[in-house]
Amino acid sequence: MFLPILGRRVVFLVCISMSRANKGHRPPGLRGKEIGLWHAAQSKNRCTGHLDYQTKFASMPLVGLNLPKIQSVIQEFVEPVPELPKTSNELISFMCKLPTLSTSKQTPEDEAEELFGEIRDCFDVSVGPCSDPDQMLLTKESLARNPDIDHELCLSMRNCMSSAAYMKMSESRCKLPAYQFKEDIVSTIRDNQVVIISGETGCGKTTQVPQFILEDQVLGGNGSVTRIIVTQPRRISAVSIAERVATERGQSVGSSVGYQVRLERRYPQRPHGSIMFCTTGIILQWFRSDPLLKNISHIIVDEVHEREFLCDFLLCMLKRIAPLRPDLRIVLMSATINADKFVEYFDNCPKFEIPGRTFPVKTYYLEDVLRETKFWLPNSAITALCRDQSRTLKQRLLKSNLSKKEARILSYGKSPEFNKWLHSLTGLSSNAIEILRSVGEDTYPKTDLIAHSVEHILQSTQSGAILVFVPGLVDIKDVIRCLRELNPRRYDNRYGSVRIYPLHSRIPTSRDRSLFEPSPKNQRKVVIATNIAETSITIQDVVYVIDCGRIKVTDYDPRQNTSTLTAILVSKANAAQRSGRAGRVQPGICYHLFPSYVYNNVMSDFLQPEMLRVRLEDVILRIKLLGLGRVKSFLTNCLDSPSEDAISKTLIFLRQIQALKLIESETSNFNTSHSIKSRGQSHKLNRKSLREFSEAIKKDVNASGINILGSSCIHLDSTDEDDDELTPLGVHLANFPLDPQCAKLLIFGALFGCLEPILAVASCLTFRDPFEVPLEKQQEADRCRKELSQNSFSDHWVFATVIQSYNGLNSQIERHQFCQRYFLNERTIKDIIRLMNDYAQLLYERRYIATPKPDDSNANCNQWNINLFRAIMCAALYPNVVKVDPRFTKEGKPKTSVIMACPSEGRANIHPSSVNSKIQPTEPIWMVYFTKTKLESGSYPSIFDSTVISLRPLLFFSGNIEISKNDTSLFTIDQWIKFSGELKVVNLLKDLRKCMDGLLEQKFKSPSVANWDSTNKEGRLLQTIVDLLTSEPPPAVQVEKLS
């Protein structure tokens, strides 16, 4: 059967090839210069990617379309035009779904709450009672004075402080520099609303300041009105610090100390008189249910100097609510570097400085390390190092908007100042000089010097832990591999004299308590960590630090709508933090693997704030959810404002995924049903009533003497590109603790009865890929991926297959063998399954599914419908779409396909690890993706995960569809995806989409489980949509190249 089909395909491809070959000939009649101009134009089109496929229109197949059934279902959802109220007060009540405005006096807290949160009800996007577990702590009990609780907590505190465990831990606490300033710190916080506490690494501010406040308040009789929240930028930090503080108090986590991170929480025994550690994102969730944080007495924001974007957002929020909460105490804790910037931001608030440890730290730079360790490289390795460094520098220069020629010239040259510095060095071998020359104005990039330095320290010293800083997880593995190649016996974790601890948020050993305890006398400790160990994690017995000089950061390019994850040179602030980790218990040494010239002349003082280098959908959704007005107006009040280009790109993206909509939208290009027209009329009236309502609120607030929030809080007087409101879907996406596209994926998976596969995909996309592939077995692993894909042409379907296959095995031995055969990390799979259960719980709490089980039968009625799965991926991931255009040689053989995103983003590549990396379509096809990243190598961004989709899902779940002016059978989606079809059919499908949008809007307002009963109009609509999306023939695709 296969051979005849193959023969037909070859004939088909040859025909296409002949046709294209004819098109490649120049037109007849050209002469002289005209021939040259024609060839130049052809060459330009090939270089810029303006291929003829962009003008082709794919034909929408009519196979399986039951038009009468679709028309019948649409008729069921046509609504009559409602009778509009006549008086203004009735209009406000009707359109805003609020009671008629009352003149009764409200408290300032109530008015501020309306300004921050309740005004979203005017947008008709209420979602019912809050069931978010990330908000439950604050909604259980409010802070109110209770003398009985004050007395009880005071007695409990005295008993705690007199316990043997507490007294024992107090001995070590007393040695911390912060402890010497306990009374001064407490009195400063008591007398000032905002306090900046800066201290060098190891001074004890993170663990001690919350305890100082708790003891002062509880012993002072204020326990019932004391609830201390401490934010950390990372989950591992929040958990480990909570455990440390609980231990210092002679307790376990869950007594007076608790923590809450995403999908994991251990609350204190009761909220009064407690300390709660959480990630920054958690407290931002609380603003929705408690806009003024009335249930918090003290909020401590730690590690503010890192300038993480959610932390900057939180600081902006705290600055806005501080005047309305004079009793709230805000403590910002920072490294000594750049603390003055925060002082200025909070109107010159007091700053308290805590000195660090007194043990000195000796600093070595690369030239000193080479001299000290006698590190040596052969000439071939130095040549390769020079070539790699030039390539890295060239890529960096190209990102600075230099031309390729300028970048190439600069990448091979060294500045005269650097050459002069190099010649001034003494006491170095010629080999060391050549290494420094090859490294240039950068840091040493390879892991061999790190391993050599660790060996040197272990051989030349008798005690002290070693902390190694590397950029990422791959580098951690490389260092461990190098060490075990150098001395397998010494670094064996079971029998060796050295214990290696990889420290990364994705590695379970990061939670190993022995990591934070002194090593036994007969064993040394080597910790290999990312920048998480700069400030968030403290390892007491570290004496030696090896700093590779690089840090991984994500940078967002709004022009290409692409994120770039690269390892860049650290800043002076990073270098200072890293060297500060040494010398905690005795004088320490820090080995920086970059030259002193780089530190003094090249290195920047600080890294760019994260707010300026990430996409802003999370921040913008929070701004809209909290009713904080226009995005640009709000973000201008942050410590550092993002570029307008980044804001505009993110707003466009959120509109494309239907999370936001402009308040005055453009008129549709299609004739829609009468009910849809009436909604547009109602929308204009709703906007008018909203203006009146917001003005009334502002008048009431001003009358009460509260004009703190400023006019930027509500901007409803004009319409521009930043005049958006959350859609009902956007409200739900903003309330899910994950990426908005993954949240949308969960919602559509639950709605269309494809829950378990979608849960697997969302968990893998938000957590990590379950594959763990040795470098030498990459090709074998790629074949395993393709086998798991089941010819679905979908990386996302691979995730679902992995989880389904693993769960289907009965014994642990079978599961272990399955993971070994397919290069899967079993621990990662178990974490993914746990995450799937957590996401199912979130959907259950929001009433999208009937039970909190991922394998619930009703939620999986279409579980293995691959065509529906593709459609759901399209619905969630749009506008992340690329077009794959086939190319052929003159002989008709397929060439590498052209991958093209939307015109503004340009070309892309499919990453080699994808099952679609060698895809060979016989006609233009589309794919959706989640991750597109510009790597350090490669000229185009790489797509790591993709799913081939059909045309109907693209039409059904896409954005704006325009009709060609010259031909009513030609259409364009979002100005670049072209297809042909009958106008009547396209209009019918658009009306069906409107019906689905209406159903979704209803479910977002009043969430309920999907009703698939065919006697119910909801069930008929859902089944009609499923039939529409699954009856289309699959795209013509093959993987193996034809010979």
The number of strands is 31
Q: End-to-end distance, in Å?
A: 18 Å
Whole-angstrom Rg = 31 Å
Shape: globular
Strand content: 5-15%
The CATH homologous superfamily of the domain at 142-357 is named: P-loop containing nucleotide triphosphate hydrolases
| Poorly predicted runs | 1-24, 44-55, 86-136, 665-720
Spatial order of the strands in the main sheet?
15-16-25-26-22-21-20-24-27
Instruction: Give the fraction of residues assigned to helices.
Output: 40-55%
What is the CATH C-level name of the domain at 142-357?
Answer: Alpha Beta
Number of helices: 39
The major sheet is characterized as: 9 strands, mixed
Chain-averaged pLDDT: 79
- CATH names the topology of the domain at 142-357 as Rossmann fold
Label the structural class: alpha/beta
Report on this model:
The protein is α/β, with parallel strands linked by helices. It is globular. Strands 15-16-25-26-22-21-20-24-27 form a nine-stranded mixed beta sheet. Among the domains are: about 140-355, Rossmann fold; about 360-375 and about 445-605, P-loop containing nucleotide triphosphate hydrolases (Rossmann fold), CATH 3.40.50; about 615-660 and about 720-725, no CATH class; about 750-860, no CATH class. The two termini are about 20 Å apart. The model is unreliable at about 1-25, about 45-55, about 85-135 and about 665-720 (pLDDT under 50).
Task: Supply database-style keywords.
8-stranded mixed beta sheet; 44% helix; Rossmann fold; 14% strand; 9-stranded mixed beta sheet; disordered N terminus; 1043 residues; alpha/beta
